[in-house]
Specification:
45% of the residues lie in helices and 16% in strands. It is of the alpha/beta class. A six-stranded mixed beta sheet has the order 1-2-3-5-7-10, with helices on both faces. Strands 4-6-8-9 form a four-stranded mixed beta sheet. α1 links the parallel β2 and β3. The structure holds ligand T3D.
Amino acid sequence: MTQSTDAPLIVSQEGAVRFLTLNRPAALNAFTTGLLTQLRQALDDAGKDDSVRAVLITGAGRAFCAGQDLSDPMVKPEFGDDAQPKDIGHLLDNYYIPMALQLRAMPVPVVCAVNGVAAGAGASLALGCDIVIAAESASFIQAFSKIGLIPDCGGTWLLSRLVGRAKALQMAMLGDKLPAAEAVQLGLIARCVPDAELAATAHATALKLATMPTRALVETRRLIDEAMNLEFYDALKLESRLQSQLGFADDYREGAQAFFEKRAPKFKDR
Ligand code: T3D
């Protein structure tokens, strides 16, 4: 997979791990419609490619992603007497919402390596991934309130579920920088590691996931997400239905057989 190094998104692969690197470092990897389009295409490609068993998203340079590129003509407010208001909802409906839905429904696990600041929709992108690992120097900023907007791209849904109402409101209203270590303490992200260890730790995590039973991992994500909105009995029944399907799959046979044969399983289902 060869690509121009000035592309807004760099796509590469090592083994069964597809790397997606946001690559607009001069603008802290802020989202343009071009980057959003490429990211959606890359997620789609990864989902359809049987050689991919895990995706790893990160950013180039000192930031992960500063959210929407505020200089994009689609959103940059006009100034002066004849200024025409911009419909930001159009951008959300056509770019951000499809991306957030796609991420949540990826047929393989998605790891996020947050290498620096994740602000606005950049934070939402990170928090929408399955396992989020950040460098110690990284931080999370709900930047929206500072420019008169609300958390979007799933921000309100994610924040309230991850850290609860009190902390979600504190982060969203004040828009202060939350260092990665505190993000772990709050339960916002899974792990924080020294900067020099981020790439290797995230890669090892994605590699490990890539050896695991993909369908079981993806259904686990679905159950964890849906359980929040289900009565206990309904969650039990959904578990039972999905477990029944997985019980018929080759990966379960392989996992059990490997257990009895005291060897590492070779999972193949996707
Ligand atoms: O219309 C809509 O907005 C709809 C969609 C909304 C979703 C959203 O994501 S809204 C939130 C948008 N994001 C922000 O408001 C964050 C803006 N950026 C910042 O607050 C700061 O840059 C950071 C806290 C993220 C980092 O600060 P710092 O001091 O480390 O870096 P910096 O000097 O501010 O930025 C470095 C460069 O990146 C700078 O360019 P320059 O001066 O070197 O040419 C800066 O303009 C550029 N940059 C940073 N963020 C953005 C950006 N350029 C365009 N859009 C950005 N979001």
